[in-house]
Amino acid sequence: MARDHPWHAGVARREHGFTYLGLLILVAILALAASATLTLGSIVQRREAEQRLLEVGAAYRQAIASYLNSSPAGDRRYPGTLADLLRDPRYPGVRRHLRQLYPDPITGKNEWGLVGAPGGGIMGVHSLSNAKPIKIADFALENESFEEATRYSQWVFMARPLAPVGGAMPAQGGLPPAAIPPLSAQPQPPSLSPAPMFVPQNGAPAASWPAAPIPSQNLPGR
C-alpha cells in the first residue's frame, strides 16, 4: 500500500488548525452576544425598577402628606410609623392613607430609609440602595433634586406641610381653607343718591320753601 505524501499530511493539519481556530472565534462571538443580551436585559429591568421606585415613592409621599394635613384639631403631626398610614390611630374608625406597604423596587426588600420630622414622626422615605441611577434628567417638578443624585438613596420622597392661611389649620383632606378677602376688597352695596325735590308745576313754590314776594307792579289791576 502506498504511503501518503508528507505534503498531504501538512495540508490536513493546517485544515484542522483553521477549523479549531474558527470554532474558538465562533464561541467568543456567541459569548459576547450573550453578555450583551444580559447587559441589555439588566438595563431594561433597572429602568423598570427606577420607574416603579418613582411611583412607589410618590405614593408614600402623598400618604404622609394626607396623614399630616388631615390631622384633627390639636393633634397635627406626622405618622409615627409607616404602618400608621394603613390605619390612622387618631380616629376611632378605619381611616387609610395608603393601601399597603410597598417594598423598595430597587432592593426588593421591605426596608426603607426614613426621614425624621423635626417634631417627631416620619416625613419622608428613600431607598437604601447605593447603586448609581440610570435616569439623570427629565424628572417631574417635585423630583427635580434627583437630577444631582449619584445613588438611589439620594432620591428622597419627602412630604411638605401645607402653609395655613391666617393661622388656621388646613381643612381635612389636605386642602387649606379659602382666604377671606379684606373688607376693602369685598363688594359694597350701591350708595343711594338723595331723592330729587318735587317741584310743583305752574311755577308754584315747593311746600318746604317760603313763597317769594310778588312785585306790586306785576299784580293785575294795578
From TrEMBL:
Keywords: Membrane, Transmembrane, Transmembrane helix. The keyword Transmembrane helix applies. The chain crosses the membrane at residues 20-44. Residues 176-186, 204-216 have a biased composition (Low complexity). It comes from the Bacteria. Residues 176-222 are annotated as: Disordered. This is Type II secretion system protein. It comes from Candidatus Accumulibacter appositus. The lineage of its organism: Bacteria, Pseudomonadati, Pseudomonadota, Betaproteobacteria, Candidatus Accumulibacter.
